[in-house]
DNA sequence: TCTTTGTTTCGTAATTAGACGAAATACTAA
DNA sequence: TTAGTATTTCGTCTAATTACGAAACAAAGA
């Protein structure tokens, strides 16, 4: 396999990945919800009640955010408690910060 | 037509729209490029030289960023000089800011 | 008038995203 | 063991995104 010329910087790639994850109103809503209730347990069902989408669709959005590293789920059957992934959140915050407030 | 219950706030909708626009490495690259060269004129061709994609594809990405309100193009045939749309950029910055640094 | 030039638009193909309902999962409680 | 519960996974469909090359455009210069 060839060593491919790199076109985008790591920052640009990551920036695009985090942005894409936040590129849907349901997923922005989820992040808002989790951040607002960072002290409590947040279950999928709590969010489902406020959203006009099928539970399976919500589950899909949750796993996209999880794959992007923005949230994590702690299994506690039959519930799953969701919360912010602090490392991912901090990285996204920093990336966005240097992107918008560049020197 | 019914008055539909609003599910997402304006902020959430806008947040998702701006994020989606930045959800591709080529578009992040374009923003970086325009911000870095804010003083100069930036033509499509200048960016095309650094990107491994067809010019028509680049043009598509440019018009997505334009549709999202993040950039604008001043026609100066046969060139088109692109630059940041300051109003959109400021709004995106503010949205991201309150999203990440909420109180 | 005919070329040339930089860029966009068009037509099209391949891939990914977003949505749903039905079925599966994994644990609790009866 | 059986039933119940919250959630996910699966299969499927439709729509949107990403990409390309060819053709169109609009002005400048020969």
Characterise the protein shown here.
- Two copies of one chain form a homodimer.
- With 103 residues, the first copy, chain A, is of the alpha+beta class.
- The first copy, chain A, has one domain: Arc Repressor Mutant, subunit A (Orthogonal Bundle), CATH 1.10.10.
- Chain A has five helices and three strands; from the N terminus they run ααβααββα.
- In chain A, a hairpin with a 2-residue loop joins strand 2 (71-76) and strand 3 (79-84).
- In chain A, helix 1 (10-21) packs across helix 5.
- The first copy, chain A, is elongated.
- The first copy, chain A, starts with 9 loop residues before the first helix and ends with a helix.
- At the A-B interface, helix 1, helix 2 and helix 5 of A face helix 1, helix 2 and helix 5 of B.
- Chain A binds a DNA duplex (30 and 30 nucleotides) through helix 3 and helix 4.
Features of the shown structure:
5 helices, 103 residues, DNA-binding, homodimer, alpha+beta
In short:
2 copies of one chain form a homodimer. Chain A has a single domain, classed as Arc Repressor Mutant, subunit A, CATH 1.10.10.
